[in-house]
């Protein structure tokens, strides 16, 4: 089927739902560790509490990709039903997460939230490949990255913003501050509305041969596991090489999401989370000291969240530059990705020397890497796989995202950063080294069509 070139606004509409998805991911990535710490988690236990996120991605994304490849509704299309189901579940989970009364409940809500976000997110990657001709693929993924950057920046600043509007950062021991609760409620609303916007403004191409589509679907009804395993076993070399890059890239970013808050509140702001067992909570003076330290930690956590939001703003600017360039000219995806990841690695390494005033510059560099991670690997992959299997291939490709996160959560971060010492900031150094390794691994990519494609055909 010859696909029609789309205008900027048509691509914007089909990608707009990612604003809500990124609200969910940014609030989760920026503030779940803070919620865990507020509920009593020690910093060494935080990565394991995060294991819900990659485990659900490992299970959900290939399944949703497989199912969406085999879905067709004349009214709702192929991918949009999954956007909508995931949005409803994610919005409910986002609202409830900061109301968790205990650590195990917060960890359980993270499972639900991440699974729901993945139901919406995975088909969005496939939608770009479904809708756009080859010549607009890089452009489409870059526009998607632009919207993700907007969502990351706004959502990461929400607790700080609502605090500035007068909502309290203070709370008794073991209770999430109202500023965080309000921020997550706003995120839930934005998630649902932005997905609805894409669902109702975007159409999808039907299968080229509907009868053949239905026949293949019936024949494959009982072959789900074998089909997934078959596609894993027949991965193109380019996909495997991109998987190596993804492994080191996502090890770095999972390290940031899970440990940036304890690392930066402790090392940069000098306001670590107070440990209740260090205080005599039956003594009024100790209670006052605990409350003072906890309020200082909550306020510096707001500032860490705002600083993290800079990487969303930076990735947005990077994506905007790429969008203008790729709309008319071709790029060398391999070298763009290589350079971007190395810059991000330098940003992580610089955190060891950062002050509260210059921490934002570290996240500017990290944002360049993030903008590239969200576009270049997918653009390279989509040029080297069977378009009929785009959903399941994208789902399988995301295994290279979740496996490094599982390894990190099961002790990988604590082990590797422990080799450098017991300071929390060492985790950010490990993230920097990992991202630089990911950048250099781009030298493995040799498929010419994956590296560059003539975009103005």
Summed up:
The chain is mainly alpha-helical and 457 residues long. It is built from 19 helices and no strands. It has one domain: MFS general substrate transporter like domains (Growth Hormone, Chain: A, Up-down Bundle), CATH 1.20.1250.
Give the topology, please.
Elements: H1 8-15, H2 17-38, H3 46-49, H4 52-69, H5 80-96, H6 103-131, H7 137-164, H8 178-201, H9 210-219, H10 224-233, H11 237-267, H12 284-326, H13 333-350, H14 359-373, H15 376-382, H16 390-397, H17 399-418, H18 426-440, H19 448-451
Helix pairs in contact: 1-7, 2-5, 2-6, 2-7, 2-8, 2-11, 2-12, 4-6, 4-16, 4-17, 5-6, 5-8, 6-16, 7-8, 7-12, 7-15, 11-12, 11-17, 11-18, 12-14, 13-14, 13-15, 13-18, 17-18
Membrane topology: Multi-pass membrane protein
Main location: membrane
Subcellular location: Membrane
Give an account of the 3D structure.
The chain has 457 residues and is mainly α. It has one domain: Up-down Bundle (Growth Hormone, Chain: A), CATH 1.20.1250.20. 72% of the residues lie in helices and 0% in strands. The chain is built from 19 helices and no strands. It has helices at residues 8-15, 17-38, 46-49, 52-69, 80-96, 103-131, 137-164, 178-201, 210-219, 224-233, 237-267, 284-326, 333-350, 359-373, 376-382, 390-397, 399-418, 426-440, 448-451. Helix 7 (137-164) packs antiparallel against helix 8 (178-201). The longest helix has 43 residues, at 284-326. Pfam families: MFS_1.
């Amino acid at each position: 089927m010859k696909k029609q070139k789309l205008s900027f606004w048509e691509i914007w509409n089909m990608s707009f739902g990612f604003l809500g998805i990124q609200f969910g991911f940014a609030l989760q990535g920026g503030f779940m560790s803070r919620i865990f710490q507020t509920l009593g988690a020690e910093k060494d236990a935080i990565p394991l509490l995060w294991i819900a996120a990659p485990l659900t991605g490992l299970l959900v994304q290939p399944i949703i990709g497989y199912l969406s490849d085999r879905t067709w509704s004349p009214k709702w299309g192929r991918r949009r039903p999954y956007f909508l189901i995931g949005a409803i579940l994610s919005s409910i989970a986002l609202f409830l997460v900061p109301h968790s009364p205990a650590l195990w409940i917060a960890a359980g809500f993270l499972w639900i939230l991440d699974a729901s976000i993945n139901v919406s997110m995975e088909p969005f990657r496939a939608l770009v490949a479904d809708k756009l001709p080859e010549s607009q693929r890089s452009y489409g993924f870059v526009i998607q990255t632009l919207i993700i950057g907007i969502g990351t920046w706004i959502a990461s600043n929400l607790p700080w913003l609502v605090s500035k509007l007068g909502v309290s950062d203070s709370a008794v021991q073991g209770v999430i501050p109202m500023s965080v609760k309000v921020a997550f409620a706003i995120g839930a609303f934005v998630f649902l509305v932005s997905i609805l916007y894409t669902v109702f403004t975007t159409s999808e191409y039907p299968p080229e041969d509907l009868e053949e589509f239905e026949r293949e679907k019936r024949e494959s009804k009982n072959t789900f596991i074998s089909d997934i395993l078959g596609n894993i076993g027949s991965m193109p070399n380019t996909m495997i090489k991109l998987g190596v890059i993804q492994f080191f890239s996502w090890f770095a970013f999972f390290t940031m999401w899970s440990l940036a808050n304890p690392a930066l509140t402790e090392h940069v702001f000098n306001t670590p989370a107070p440990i209740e067992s260090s205080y005599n909570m039956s003594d009024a003076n100790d209670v006052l000291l605990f409350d003072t330290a906890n309020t200082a930690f909550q306020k510096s956590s707001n500032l860490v969240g705002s600083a993290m939001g800079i990487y969303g703003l930076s990735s947005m600017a990077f994506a905007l530059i790429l969008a203008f360039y790729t709309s008319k000219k071709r790029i060398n995806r391999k070298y763009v990705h290589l350079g971007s990841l190395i810059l991000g690695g330098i940003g992580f390494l610089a955190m060891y020397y950062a002050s509260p005033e210059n921490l934002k510059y570290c996240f500017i560099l990290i944002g360049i890497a993030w903008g590239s991670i969200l576009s270049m690997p997918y653009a390279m992959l989509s040029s080297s796989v069977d378009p009929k299997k785009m959903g399941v291939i994208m789902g399988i490709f995301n295994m290279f995202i979740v496996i490094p996160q599982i390894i990190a959560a099961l002790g990988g971060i604590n082990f590797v950063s422990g080799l450098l010492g017991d300071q929390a900031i060492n985790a950010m150094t490990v993230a920097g080294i990992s991202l630089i390794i990911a950048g250099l691994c781009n030298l493995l990519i040799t498929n010419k069509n994956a590296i560059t494609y003539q975009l103005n055909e």
